[in-house]
Specification:
The chain is of the alpha+beta class and about 140 residues long. About 30% of the residues lie in helices and about 40% in strands. The chain folds into 2 domains: about 35 residues, N-terminal domain of TfIIb (Single Sheet); about 90 residues, K homology (KH) domain (GMP Synthetase, Chain A, domain 3, 2-Layer Sandwich).
């Protein structure tokens, strides 16, 4: 079992030491934020998880990926605990890329490999779109 340790630093700030030993400061306060809130970091985790999958898959397919940016937007439920109910991902890829290879890589990530997507998909409808920009 992997374990994170979280220490209260004052106000709404918490320092989390992750199982890897890396540390992240979370700030659930509304003013003078010193870090992301626990909930919003899930959006970054989703983008990073699926992004890692897409890069790995496209490399295996010998695609010329030059850059990747993923915009992750979410809507909250109106009542507490205000879980995310809808998440939209927009992938912007640059390079000499085959459309089918990109579509397949994203679908494999979203439906098979990305554990963050699988977890968030339990409460949110997740959708995606992508655009392929010409190479530099």
């Amino acid at each position: 079992m992997r374990t994170a340790t979280v220490k209260w630093k004052g106000e709404q700030e918490f320092l989390a030491t992750m199982p890897s030993g890396q540390q992240t400061l979370f700030d659930a306060g509304d003013a003078d934020k010193k870090g992301p809130s626990p909930k919003e970091i899930l959006l970054g985790a989703l983008g990073s998880c699926t992004g890692s999958d897409v890069v790995t898959i496209l490399r295996k397919k010998r695609q010329d990926l030059q850059s990747l940016e993923i915009s992750v937007s979410a809507e909250d439920a109106p009542e507490p605990p205000k879980v995310y109910t809808k998440i939209e991902l927009v992938y912007r890829l640059k390079g000499n890329l085959d459309d089918k290879a990109v579509r397949d890589a994203i679908e494999l990530s979203e439906t098979k490999y990305c554990s963050v997507s699988a977890m968030l998909g339990e409460t949110a409808k997740i959708s995606y779109s992508y655009e392929i920009l010409p190479p530099v």
